[in-house]
Design brief:
Blueprint: H1 7-16, H2 37-43, H3 59-69, H4 76-81, H5 103-109, H6 111-123, H7 134-143, H8 148-174, H9 181-199, H10 207-212, H11 214-219, H12 222-243
Bound molecules: zinc ion (ZN).
Zinc ion (ZN) binds near residues 93, 95, 99, 105 and 110.
Length: about 240
Amino acid sequence: MQKGSPFWKVVLREKYGVGVGVPLLSGGSTCPNYASRWWKDVSNLGDGDGLNWKSPAPSKVVVFTWKLLHDRIPTKRNLAIRNSLPSDSSLECVWCNNSVEDSTHLFLHCEGVSMVWCKLMEWVEFNFLIPPNLFILWECWNGAILNKKLRRGVRLIWHAAIWSIWKARNDRIFNNVDIDVEELLESIKVLSWRWCLGRLNLPACLFYEWNWNPKIVCCGDVDLLGCAASWWLFGCYGGALFLL
Ligand SMILES: [Zn+2]
C-alpha cells in the first residue's frame, strides 16, 4: 500500500485498475471499460452532465440523487423494463394510483409531492413554477442563489427532500405507512435541520430557528436570526396572551 493513500482507493484500484477513483466528484472520467456500471456511475459523478454535485448531504444521498436524475433508480417503471416485477404487478403510483410510477412523476409531478415542492420553495423564498423535469428543478434550485453558503444550504434541503420522498414511498409500499403533505414537509425540514447541525459547520441552531428562516441560518447570522425569531414568537404567543 502506498504511503498516504486511503485504504479504500487501494482496494478499488486493485479491483478496477490504476486511476480509478482519483477524481471522484471533481470531473474527469478515469474509469476503465471493464469497471462495473455502478462504479462508473460513482466515478463519473459530475462528469459530462454539466452539473455541480458538491453538497453537504451524505454521500449515499448525493449518489442516489445523481442516479435519480439519470433515471437509474428502481421505480416500478424501471423494474418493469428490466423484467424484475411479476407480470401482473401494478405500475401505478403508490400515492395517487393515477399514473405510472416513474422518476419524474414520483419525485415531482404526483399531486402531493408537487405541493410539498411548492411549500418548500415558499419556505426558502424561491419563486418559480413546478418544472417539467427534475434536471430543471435542480438547476433552478442551484441557479436561484449566488451566495456560496446559501447555496450549500439549499442543496442540502434539496437532497433532504429527495431522500425523504423516497423513504416515504418505500414506507408506503413495504410498511403500509402513509403520510400526508404536511407530515412529509415536516420530515424534510427536520432531516435538513439535522444535517445542517452536523454538516454545515455553522453555529448551532434550534429547529424553530431553522424552520423560521433556513437562509439566515445558512448565512451564519445568528444575531439576526435570534432577533427575527423572537419577534416571530412574540407575534404568535404575545398575541395569544393578549387575547386571553
Ligand atoms: Zn402519483
